[in-house]
Design goal:
The complex is a heterotrimer.
Chain A: H1 2-33, E1 47-51, H2 59-70, E2 74-78, H3 83-95, E3 103-107, H4 108-114, H5 130-133, H6 138-144, E4 154-156, E5 160-161, E6 163-167, H7 168-174, H8 182-192, E7 198-201, H9 209-219, H10 230-244, H11 257-265, E8 269-274, H12 279-283, E9 292-295, E10 305-309, E11 311-315, H13 322-333, H14 335-345, H15 352-358, H16 364-375, E12 377-380, H17 387-402, H18 408-421
Parallel strand pairs in A: 1-2, 1-3, 7-8, 10-12
Antiparallel strand pairs in A: 3-11, 4-11, 5-10, 6-8, 6-9
Helix pairs in contact in A: 2-14, 9-10, 13-14, 17-18
Chain B: H1 2-42, H2 64-72, H3 75-106, H4 110-122, H5 127-140, H6 147-172, H7 175-183, H8 188-217, H9 220-225, H10 232-235, H11 250-270, H12 272-283
Helix pairs in contact in B: 1-11, 2-11, 3-6, 3-8, 6-8, 7-8, 8-12
Chain C: H1 8-36, E1 39-42, E2 47-50, H2 54-59, H3 63-95, H4 101-107, H5 109-113, H6 116-126, H7 133-141, H8 153-180, H9 185-193, H10 198-227, H11 230-235, H12 247-257, H13 261-290
Antiparallel strand pairs in C: 1-2
Helix pairs in contact in C: 1-13, 3-8, 3-10, 6-8, 8-10, 10-13, 12-13
The chains are: A alpha/beta, B mainly alpha, C mainly alpha.
């Protein structure tokens, strides 16, 4: 009886799938003429782009510019902007060999995971040719988007720094004019941290804490992927001490960037590390030389260190429109393309030569960004192939360590174990 | 003697009324207070969003977030897609579920029971778990990112709960009614349409409403099984990032939440009587 | 029951559409998931080999999963207890005869209808020490109150459960309410005549009569709790540490973010078994209750 039932079920499922399959062919024509349809895979487009910017107010202008310059008709699909959701969706598309998307925009976490997976097309001969390659930040290109065969797999869409931000009002109040060394930093912490206010603020939520840990390890001259390095331990103990001494708050282990920036705007933090050009502060009327602004990274060890990040345009190996995709990518790597992104999305051009030309001197970020590029050791963030798993595993033990649930020895041992597991 | 008991009764009644209103106020407060807070987030400029203590009457209320959504998120196309998908889902889904539920309640054989067991058992499978194989499957059968594909998945998602509820309801309708009609010479089809269906109306209305809300909030299915066909629920995670590329814009998210919620509130407010009648008539007596 | 054998074909005609549709979307994924659970598939490392039962064995060695299972058990049990107690309470309130009833019945559906992504994000803000609604409210009475809910295990768990209750309890109450309607007023009148007070009539009449209904409702609600991950997903990401991670959330992360497909499948099969056992026990319990 049971066997019979199952066979009936299976047969029914097959018949149904066949029927629906046919039915679907029939009305796909109908649906493409449907006014509300904006689905992908249709012949009328040369290329499908998966992007996080599609809901930006200036996206329409940008798209018109790109389509005009390349002569391509681009079908745009909005990528989820929520980090985890986006990562899951893009991973699924690429790992299942889905050809309905040609070009995708991915962040460093994804680049680190995907670059050696064979899902991304190498671009050395077509887009990232030798004449322009040198203009991109070298450390970044090597750390982040070069695969094991030496192929560059992405076109950086912009150049960003994990900049050091300070609140000038607070600096004036405590009478400190510059934070150049570790001693200055500690002095600033001490001066600023009084009831309800902290010298330093961070976002230590499980998946965000990684940036902070890596930044401090970096500043102490350590190596995030080698936890036998004494500088790593020193950096972690420094962070722990900051909490103990009240220089920074334990509350922030629940905070993401939204919460952190809100507190920074309210004058609850004296300084922090943050990506971007400060839109959150501008919106609150807090951006400016006399209020919240970027500053040079303090030097904790022999050199100054800074992280750079980007989002890269990558080409899906399963794509069936590679010629069009290459054309699009070439434009994104060109001066005009970078200019368009700078104007529409405030994205700082990834190429040095382009930034020099395109960004006007009135842009307050230009001066400090060139100082970062010239005075600091610029690195991509340390990531492993199993990036997200590594990031959240590290975040978990970091929170335990900061809350005093495990010792620094446990922390370093576990961290080293994770480095090996997720590589 | 009588007077005093009367007075006592009135005092008691008065106290009861006061008690009822206190309970009412508490419940309404717990429900509405957070909802109101989410609402004021949606009409506050992003720079003024968070204050301590909370400002329950925003200084500069603004509809910018809504304006932004209407201008940049392609709401119209999304509403259109949502209406098409949910409309077809509810229509087809309800018909087949009523048919199935009737059969499950009225016919008993090993095979039928097994089929019912199968449907209920599939309810036990978390959708996240089977998402990946299903994603590959949908691509293989060429239903990925198509309207029929999405509708099939939407219907499939509401089937177990709907069948379970409706089957129990049909079980409550006395078989004798049908037997009587049968003796009077009514055919099977006549019995189904003239006797059973009219009695099931409130139950059907109830599951339709529940399914309407469930479908409107179904976030997982459209997110994973389509790229191009966009619906309202997914728009919540497609709002522009802050310039740090990680921060999520709470002002826009809360506004988007209200855009999704608004039709539901209107719907419930207008049809409150029908909905409650439906539920009260035992629509969801499980 | 009353139908003749010869009419069985009608039954199958009626059942076929739901059965085929549901089968179409579930059979392949289920079979595939069970198969995957015996393989070590890690897409990001390019591993795909037969692994026998090792995925299942690893589950019990995985500290993350053990913490997750603990919280899942706490979450389901505590949340369901509150659902039952407050759900019945709220249903009684909604069943009272007074002028505000209609309004109340309309608004109780709002939390349930609100998209969970919005509620999760709102929850993250609401339980924030500086900007949160909850602490702001408490501070109106106790100005010195300070608590960052989401950084400590206990309070973070309480916050997650509270949010879950806020969202789903009204829906549960509405469904209980429908059961209450079946109790005719005559029974209460009769009880009153016999001198029963409110509590007596509640425990002697109301409760026994709606208990079957409540227990039936517990099945889908418990299963939904076991498979729910969206609140945690947008509110705490399972933090602090892994303390508020739910099993379905863990599976989502393993399957989609970490791409440990085989391991995720093994977790899923395990969850399926747990849910199956739960449903079976619940049904047995109910049938005993009826007798």
């Amino acid at each position: 009886m049971k066997k019979k039932m199952i066979s009936i079920l299976l047969m029914a499922a097959f018949v149904c799938s066949a029927l629906i399959g046919c039915g679907n062919n029939g009305d796909s024509d109908q649906s493409s003429t449907d006014a509300v349809t904006n689905k992908g895979g249709n012949k009328e487009y040369d290329l499908t782009l998966y992007t996080v910017n599609s809901t930006d107010a200036d996206f329409g202008d940008w798209l018109a510019n790109v389509e005009g310059a390349t002569g391509l008709k681009i079908n745009v699909i909005a990528a989820p902007t929520d980090t985890d959701t986006r990562q899951q969706k893009i991973t699924t598309i690429l790992s299942t060999g889905d050809s309905s998307v040609d070009v995708l925009e991915i962040n460093d976490e994804m680049s680190a995971s995907f670059k050696n997976s064979g899902w991304l097309e190498g671009l050395n001969d077509t887009v990232m040719t030798e004449d322009i390659r040198g203009e991109f930040p070298q450390g970044y290109i090597e750390d982040m988007i070069t695969d094991k065969n030496g192929q560059i797999v992405g076109v950086p869409g912009y150049s960003g720094y994990l900049a050091f931000w300070v609140n000038q009002e607070i600096m004036d109040e405590v009478g400190i004019s510059a934070i150049e060394t570790k001693e200055d930093f500690v002095e600033y912490m001490e001066a600023v941290s009084t009831d309800g206010r902290y010298g330093y603020g961070g976002s230590w939520e499980k998946t965000y804490a990684f940036n902070e840990m890596a930044q401090f390890v970096n500043m102490f001259g350590g190596d995030y992927l080698d936890w036998s390095n004494p500088a790593n331990r020193e950096a972690m103990e420094f962070l722990h001490e900051m909490v103990v001494k009240g220089y920074t708050s334990l509350d922030q282990i629940a905070d993401k960037y939204e919460q952190m920036n809100s507190k920074f705007n309210d004058g609850k933090y004296g300084s922090l590390f943050m990506w971007g050009l400060g839109t959150d502060y501008a919106k609150a009327g807090m951006l400016g030389d006399d209020k919240i602004h970027m500053a040079m990274v303090p030097q904790f060890s022999e050199q100054k260190y800074i992280f750079t990040d980007s989002w890269s345009y990558v080409l899906n190996t399963a794509s069936k429109n590679k010629d069009a995709a290459v054309k699009f990518l070439q434009y994104m790597a060109s001066e005009e393309g970078m200019k368009a992104s700078y104007e529409a999305f405030d994205r700082y051009p990834a190429r040095k030569d382009v930034a020099e030309k395109v960004v006007p001197d009135t842009d307050p970020s230009k001066a400090i960004y060139s100082r970062y590029a010239n005075e600091c050791v610029v690195k991509g963030r340390p990531m492993l192939p199993q990036t997200m798993e590594f990031i959240s595993a590290m975040g978990t033990i970091f929170q335990s360590y900061i809350k005093g649930e495990i010792t620094i020895d446990d922390f370093c041992a576990k961290a080293q174990e994770y480095v090996e597991t997720y590589n | 003697m009588e007077k005093s008991s009367n007075r006592k009764y009135q005092v008691y009644k008065c106290l009861a009324t006061v008690g009822k209103w206190i309970l009412f106020a508490m419940v309404a407060f717990v429900i509405l207070f957070p909802v109101y807070w989410i609402f004021i987030s949606s009409i506050t400029a992003p720079g003024e969003l968070f204050k301590t203590p909370i400002d329950y009457l925003p200084d500069h209320p603004t509809l910018d977030s809504y304006k932004f959504l209407i201008e940049n998120v392609g709401l119209l196309a999304k509403v259109g897609n949502t209406v098409i998908i949910i409309g077809v889902t509810l229509f087809v889904g309800t018909i087949i579920c009523v048919m199935g539920a009737y059969a499950f309640a009225r016919f008993r054989s090993k095979g039928v029971n097994l089929a019912f067991g199968f449907i209920i058992a599939t309810m036990l499978i978390p959708e996240v778990v089977t998402a990946r194989p299903l994603y590959e499957f949908m691509q293989k059968v060429k239903l990925f990112d198509t309207y029929p594909g999405l509708i099939i998945l939407y219907i499939s998602a509401i089937v177990p709960f709907t069948v379970l509820i409706l089957k129990n309801f049909v079980g409550e309708i006395p078989v004798s009614l049908e037997e009587a009609a049968s003796i009077d010479g009514a055919t099977f089809v006549q019995r189904l349409f003239l006797i059973v269906l009219p009695l099931m109306k409130p139950a059907i209305a109830t599951v339709c409403i529940i399914n309407f809300i469930t479908c409107l909030n179904n976030f997982f299915t459209p997110l994973y099984y389509s790229n191009g066909i966009q619906v309202l629920s997914v728009a919540i995670v497609q709002l522009p990032l802050r310039d740090n590329m990680y921060g999520v814009p709470w002002d826009l998210v809360s506004a988007m939440g209200w855009i999704i919620l608004l039709p539901i509130i209107l719907f419930v407010a207008i049809f409150e009587k029908q909905i409650m009648d439906g539920i009260m008539a035992g629509g969801v007596k499980a | 029951m009353i139908q003749k054998k010869s009419l069985q074909w009608i039954a199958w005609v009626l059942i076929m559409p739901v059965l085929v549709l549901r089968g179409f979307t579930t059979i392949y994924p289920i079979v595939k998931t069970v198969l995957n659970s015996f393989f070590d598939i890690r897409i990001l490392s390019g591993v795909n080999e037969f692994a026998g039962l090792s995925n299942y064995i690893n589950i019990f060695k995985d500290q993350k999963v053990i913490t997750t299972l603990k919280f899942t058990a706490i979450f389901v049990v505590v949340s369901m207890l509150f659902h039952i107690v407050f759900g019945i309470g709220l249903a009684l309130i909604l069943n009272m005869k007074f002028k505000g009833r209609r309004f109340l019945r309309t608004i109780v559906l709002i939390p349930w209808a609100m998209p969970s992504v919005v509620i999760g994000m709102a929850g993250k803000w609401a339980f924030n020490n500086d900007y949160g609604l909850i602490n702001d409210f408490i501070r109106r009475f106790f100005p010195d109150f300070q608590l960052s809910w989401l950084i400590n295990t206990g309070s973070a768990r309480a916050a997650v459960i509270a949010l879950d209750l806020w969202k789903d309890l009204p829906f549960f109450a509405i469904l209980v309410l429908s059961g209450l309607q079946f109790i005719s007023g005559d029974i209460y009148e009769a009880a009153k005549v016999d001198g029963a007070d409110w509590f007596q009539s509640f425990f002697r009449i109301t409760l026994p009569l709606i208990m079957r209904n409540v227990l039936t409702l517990c099945i889908p609600f418990t299963l939904w709790r076991l498979t729910s991950f969206d609140l945690v997903y947008s509110m705490t990401s399972g933090g602090p540490g892994e303390d508020t991670s739910l099993i379905a959330y863990r599976i989502t992360m393993e399957a989609f973010t970490n791409l440990n497909v085989g391991y995720a499948a093994a977790l899923a099969v395990l969850l399926f078994l747990v849910m199956g056992i739960f449903s079976w026990v619940n049904m047995r319990f109910m049938s005993r209750f009826e007798n």
